[in-house]
Amino acid sequence: MTQTSEQSSFRPSPDNRPMPLAAARARIVDAITPLARTEHVALSDALHRVLAETVISSIDVPGAANSSMDGFGFAAADAPADGACLAIVGQSLAGHPFAGTLGAGECIRIMTGAVVPPGVDTVVMQENTHEDDGQVVIDTVPTPGSNVRPAGEDLARGDTVLRAGHYLRPADIAVLASVGKPQVEIHARPRVAFFSTGDELRPIDGPIAPGQIYDSNRYGLAAMLSELGMEGINMGVVGDSPDALRAAFAEAAERADAIVTSGGVSVGAADFVLDILGEQGEVDFWRVAIKPGKPLAFGTIRKARFFGLPGNPVSTAVTFLQLVRPALVRMAGGTPATPTRFYLPTRTDLDKRPGRENFLRARIDMAADTPEVCAIDHQGSGVMRSMSASDCFIVLPADQGPVAAGERVCVEPFAQSVWAVPGD
Ligand code: AMP
Ligand code: MG
Residue 194 C-alpha to ligand 2 middle, in angstroms? Predict the structure, then answer.
């Protein structure tokens, strides 16, 4: 390991207490302004992007009343009771409406999606009828109005289809297509520069000597950024040297909207991230009361938001998911979703000391007779396998002590919506 000539000068002041996670998240999200840059793209390229315009429907969807069944359309007044018999005078197929006019005692054959013509107010499904010599006998008369979808049932002309800030999922793309919207204005992806810090880190395609480790965090960060739809700028590894960090911070602030680093943010002799952040920009806060992941620095360098994450791989992942991800969602023009959480009994006793909010890695067992959650055996913050073998966090509040098997604990699944669906 390279010997550094300068030593970290940052020392926490007595009142610099680790911030509770919820307060840290709120503070970070509040500090973020959505990016103003937008792009105009084909609807088919807009999946998993954030809408930057409010879309109003210029049409009714559907445009005309239509049938929701294959069957026969008639006026309810003409079929007062089961066994009513009507003359078939034509048909309406999807894309081929019935052009004529219905008289008393008449009906048309009508298919799903076909326009319901004037004079028809009810459709009976084919299965409840039988045909007899050019006539149809309605074995079971449906209630008047049955199986007719009114014009504008889904969206009426002038309705808001989706508002700016809506994160586009497959259903949203389909809704926009249903109102004939071939192009949309979307928010640009935030540019996120990221790099690892540490003299012990080596590239993953070469040998390592004792005391060296592969730079796994950068791959994990790249993957989390990519999963979130961010434009990652991979800046490699930066050594534990103030000058190298200065240069990297300056370049990152030039190129990116946000900067995410791992390592060097504690108070060790080779931890300079906080000092250089303070020197080149501003430290908003440092340290969050969570385990793993306490040392975390949030701040600003020029126009870029800075997230200095701790280097232990599980800490890097937990702090990214809990604090950086909601910030980037907001920067991308979206609204961070409130985390999905629910309660399940724990299969095992859980160690916990009051103090920090804990994020234990665990697996949900929904197949058990009584669903439960099972913590991974090794919870070390350097044991990335504990994340990889898990599908959820057990979230234990700061003031919580040890938990006995069978007690219900708060569970936060890894797979969850991170983009809120805005209500009306
Ligand atoms: P630090 O936060 O720099 O004190 O690092 C804490 C621990 O995380 C140390 O054991 C580091 O070797 C390890 N670590 C730091 N950066 C990385 C990285 N990019 N990939 C894997 N482990 C790392
Ligand atoms: Mg380090």
Answer: 15
